[in-house]
Design a protein that fits this description.
Keywords: Disulfide bond, Membrane, Repeat, Transmembrane, Transmembrane helix
Protein name: LDLRAD1-like C-terminal domain-containing protein
Low-confidence stretches: 7-13
Order of helices and strands: HEEEHEEEEH
Number of strands: 7
Helix content: 25-40%
Membrane topology: Single-pass membrane protein
Strand order of the largest sheet: 1-2-3
Shape: rod-shaped
Oligomer: single chain
Strand content: 5-15%
Distance between the termini: 138 Å
Mean pLDDT: 83
Radius of gyration: 42 Å
InterPro entries: LDL_receptor-like_sf (IPR036055), LDLR (IPR050685), LDLR_class-A_CS (IPR023415), LDLRAD1_C (IPR057430), LDrepeatLR_classA_rpt (IPR002172)
Structural class: alpha+beta
GO cellular component, one term: plasma membrane
Length: 201
């Protein structure tokens, strides 16, 4: 009996020690939980605070507008062009607002660019004529045709020297330079007939 009592006593003693250890572990967890919870709570409060500040700024100052897409590009002829949304297609200025969709998303015919010509077009696609009321597309400048009516788009200030035949022209659509291909073609282009008499091919 004494041995049995001793065994039981040892068992209870061991069980009691285990209970005590488990109790200490729970006590430690209770101590560490508030620390962890406090850190998580602080992080959540900081995130919510930052979101509140951003929202307040958006309400007070307004949401910043979307940055405009840069449309400037160089065409194969070296003139300023219009870059489509695909960031690959570069249109000459005369392809804008001509009633034909050339960009895959149709931005070349959109109201954003065609709503108030020429003011709605990017400035680098427009040439303002000498009278500052008329205008033409930039790639029509120095093409040998009088698009402005006063030849300011074909003036020596804007264009390289005449590569054709220089004279006072007969037709309103010409300025003071006709292409050599029109020399001696049996059509009078110069008022003094020099394009048919003196012009060399």
């Amino acid at each position: 009996d004494a041995d049995m009592t001793s065994v039981l006593s040892d068992g209870y003693s061991q069980f009691g020690s285990e209970m005590s250890l488990n109790h200490d572990k729970h006590k430690d967890c209770r101590n560490c939980c508030p620390r962890r919870c406090l850190l998580i709570s602080c992080a959540i409060v900081l995130i919510l605070g930052a979101m509140a500040v951003v929202l307040a700024c958006a309400i007070i100052f307004g949401i910043p507008p979307k940055q405009p897409i840069t449309r400037l590009c160089k065409t194969t002829s070296g003139t300023n062009g219009f870059l489509c949304d695909d960031r690959r297609t570069c249109l000459t200025s005369t392809h804008l607002c001509n009633g034909k969709v050339d960009c895959s998303n149709g931005e070349d015919e959109s109201n954003l660019y065609c709503g108030d010509l020429p003011h709605s077009l990017p400035k680098y696609l427009v040439f303002m004529c000498g009278n500052q009321r008329s205008w033409t597309y930039i790639d029509r400048k120095c093409d040998g045709k009088n698009h402005c009516g006063d030849c300011s788009d074909e003036s020596e200030l804007q264009c390289p020297s005449c590569s054709g035949w220089k004279c006072v022209t007969v037709f309103f659509s010409d300025c003071d330079c006709i292409p050599k291909s029109r020399c001696k073609d049996n059509i009078q282009d110069c008022s003094d007939m020099s394009d048919e008499k003196n012009c060399t091919m």
